[in-house]
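Pipeline run #58 for the internal structure catalog. This entry was flagged by the ingest filter as a single-chain record with no existing model, so it goes straight to prediction. Upstream metadata was stripped on purpose; only the residue string is passed forward. Reviewer on rotation: M.T. Logging verbosity set to normal.
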Amino acid sequence: MTKQSKFISEDEYLDDEITFESIDLTLPVAELYHRVVNQDMTEWLESQRLK
């Protein structure tokens, strides 16, 4: 038996939340990237600190 999967691409941003329906889990996208070190994350973290 073959299971057909339909993939729909969606853009998620660091201020968004993402839901993994199959495991009933919702997380802030930023939490998924908390150990990423690059210019985008550094700038975003700095902007959050200044809020």
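catalog note: The radius of gyration is 15 Å.
catalog note: The longest strand covers residues 17-20.
status: ready for reviewer M.T.
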